[in-house]
Amino acid sequence: MAKRILCFGDSLTWGFDPETRQRFDADSRWPRVMGAILGDGYEVIEEGQNGRTIATDDPAEGEKNGLKYIGPCLESHTPLDYVIIMLGSNDCKRKFSYSPMDIAGEMQIMLEKIKSYNDFRCQGKFKIVLVAPPLVSEAIKESWLGDSFEYEEACKRTAGLADWYRQLADMYGTAFVNAAEYVKASDADACHLDAENQRRLGQVLADKIKELENI
Fold it and tell me: Where are the beta strands (DSSP E) in the chain?
């Protein structure tokens, strides 16, 4: 039976192309790239949503609250062997005024919910991979998304997430990847990954899954 990997995230996981503002094809979306590298023994489930937050309602953009959806999502896709979660970028928007610590607090609640489901409904079967998202780049000063993300403030907020997420990974015993160590946002909008960086992230996370398989 193929091992099942749930990829839960926002537009970075959905595969938003910063140039066309459409969706990348399957060959350039990191979950599909990861799946192709891992091979036939794995089934990848893409659960990316543009604008998704960790745990905050967004009245301007609709039903984006990840915490409200993660429970039904886990139930609908069980059985699972891995859950990869990469969220936090949208929580850096101006409208929320969150600090990195605030965003990490949201992620802590998310992890508690996922771990509770895993422990009590799945007998601890699946492994969790927490991914700190790529940084908003300095090109945000000229980006069409600049006003929404409060320009340079978003750079500071995303830069502060990795240390907090690493602490959460240690606290909850999850695997951890800091995406910013491997990929960078496109200058086209300063937030999203181009095709090359999407593919690179797919390779990085495939390597992480292989590493966890050997533990």
Answer: 3-9, 42-48, 82-86, 127-132, 175-178
Structure tokens at 99: 């600090």
Burial 162-192 (b: 16+ CB within 10 A, else e): bebbbebbeebebbbbbbbeebbbbebbbbb
Specify the DSSP element, H or E, that contains 68.
Answer: helix 66-77
CATH assignment at residue 55 = 3.40.50.1110
Burial label for 40, CB within 10 Å (0-12, 13-18, 19+), is exposed
Query: Which pLDDT does position 1 carry in this prediction?
Result: 84
User: For residue 121, how far is the Cα from the chain centroid?
Assistant: 23
pLDDT of residue 31: 98
The total domain count for the chain is 1
> What domain range includes position 179?
3-213
> Which tens digit of pLDDT belongs to each residue from 183-214?
999 999 999 999 999 999 999 999 999 999 98
As a residue count, the chain comes to 215
CA distance 168 to 162: 10
- Residue 92 half-sphere exposure, CB side, CA atoms within 13 Å? 29
Cα 112 to Cα 8, 69, 117, distances in angstroms: 15, 14, 9
